[in-house]
Amino acid sequence: MGSKVALVTGGTGGIGTSLCRELAQQGFTVVAGYNSGGKHEKAQAWQAAQVKDGFNIDVAYGDVSDPDSSEACVNAILERHGSIDVLVNNAGITRDSTFRKMTLDQWDEVMNANLRSVFNMTRLCIQPMMDSKWGRVINISSVNGQKGQFGQTNYAAAKAGMHGFTKSLAQEVASKGVTVNTVSPGYVLTAMVAAIGDEVLQKIASTIPVGRLGQPEEIANAVAFLASERAGFITGSNLAINGGQHMF
Ligand code: CAA
């Protein structure tokens, strides 16, 4: 039997790249889902850079907020690799704005990319996982889904929604060898976080007891563990990785 196949949505992004590399390191066949606004050359350049670093990672295009595009993406992966055993719902965007200024577009874009996407992708992967009696769904949420964040009513609502999704689906598929968990990163050094203005970011960083932002690898290590055989008894849980910024 070949190695298990892991799909990481948003796989070419900041945390996504680390997730892909760590899962590859752990022996999974890894596919990085990408949207990149349809800029395929960008994903190909990303893939070439991974090869240069010794990581053989496939890439597959799809807009996870769109059901048809999600289906085309999953079908292409199944054709090439035969199964998707681990689904990491990692794709996500921000459209930060105080609520009083937030447009319906900013609300919808974030809900669709961050939460509807989880429905679209998981729906396509869950039945085959149940049929094969093994599977892992790992949803990448955020500390801000737990504690809320000034300027993120849309993002925090979508990320909080993931928890209810995880806990419900975990109950539905537990008897079939499929686990469903959430990982909630805090502020991790990626382009998404770097886009916050310096002043605001410094203020936020000062509230992190560990005294620094997280590294993408620190999220990837936990995701690789949840994807592994050793984590078979962990389901419906949320693993907070935020340097102590929010504890409960
Ligand atoms: N807490 C309290 N008050 C705040 C504040 C804060 N964090 N930030 C701004 N304010 C205040 C300002 O001082 C100002 O007050 P006055 O009107 O009294 O002068 C007022 O709010 C500004 O309100 P505006 O509606 O005009 O806000 P703005 O347009 O200037 O900026 C914002 C709003 C774009 C949301 C900005 O605050 C911001 O960038 N915040 C950071 C949001 C953030 O943390 N995003 C995380 C992105 S990373 C990520 O999401 C990854 C992950 O999972 C962790």
Describe the structure concisely:
By secondary structure, the protein is of the alpha/beta class.
Task: Give an account of the 3D structure.
The chain is α/β, with parallel strands linked by helices. α1 links the parallel β1 and β2. The termini are far apart. It has nine helices and seven strands, in the order βαβαβαβαβααβαααβ. It is globular, with a radius of gyration of 17 Å. Helices cover 48% and strands 15% of the residues. It has a seven-stranded parallel beta sheet, with helices on both faces. α1 packs across α9, α3 packs parallel to α4 and α4 packs parallel to α6. 46% of the residues are buried. It has a single domain, classed as Rossmann fold (3-Layer(aba) Sandwich). The site of acetoacetyl-coenzyme A has 20 residues, from α5, α7 and α8.
Fold topology:
Elements: E1 5-8, H1 14-25, E2 29-34, H2 40-52, E3 58-61, H3 67-81, E4 86-89, H4 104-132, E5 135-140, H5 143-147, H6 153-173, E6 178-185, H7 191-194, H8 198-205, H9 216-227, E7 238-241
Parallel strand pairs: 1-2, 1-4, 2-3, 4-5, 5-6, 6-7
Helix pairs in contact: 1-9, 3-4, 4-6
Bound molecules: acetoacetyl-coenzyme A.
Organism: Litorivicinus lipolyticus
InterPro entries: Acetoacetyl-CoA_reductase, KR_dom, NAD(P)-bd_dom_sf, Sc_DH/Rdtase_CS, SDR, SDR_fam
Pfam family, one: adh_short_C2
Strand sequence of the main sheet, in spatial order? 3-2-1-4-5-6-7
Categorize the overall geometry: globular
CATH top level assignment = Alpha Beta
How far apart the termini lie comes to 42 Å
Helicity level? 40-55%
Rg value: 17 Å
CATH superfamily: NAD(P)-binding Rossmann-like Domain
Mean pLDDT level: 97
Strand count, sense and barrel status of the largest sheet are:
7 strands, parallel
Structure ligands: acetoacetyl-coenzyme A
What CATH calls the topology is Rossmann fold
| SSE arrangement, N to C | EHEHEHEHEHHEHHHE
Structural class: alpha/beta
- CATH second-level architecture: 3-Layer(aba) Sandwich
Low-confidence region ranges: none
Strand content: 5-15%
Overall domain count: 1
